[in-house]
Amino acid sequence: MIAIHTQAKEDGKSLSGREIVEMVLKKKVKYGPKETVRSTREIQLEAELQEERAESERRTKEFEAKIQSQEEKIQIQDEKIQLQEEKLQM
Known about the structure:
Helix content: over 70%
Strand content: under 5%
Number of domains: 1
Oligomer: single chain
């Protein structure tokens, strides 16, 4: 439910608690011999999984940004070292 609320905020939509609950509990499967009804626990676990995925993606983006920043710093330091070596050779 939190994931749905967060996604709605990111999309600029406003959802009430009731609308979120209806979205989560809304049955997305048809009844038939091969179809099963999803239990509340399954729905809850799926919502938790979606939340964990969103958190994981956020962390991944943060780590990628840190890595990029560190690579840029390393490149700048390498350039400084090369300049110092060139000065010493003169």
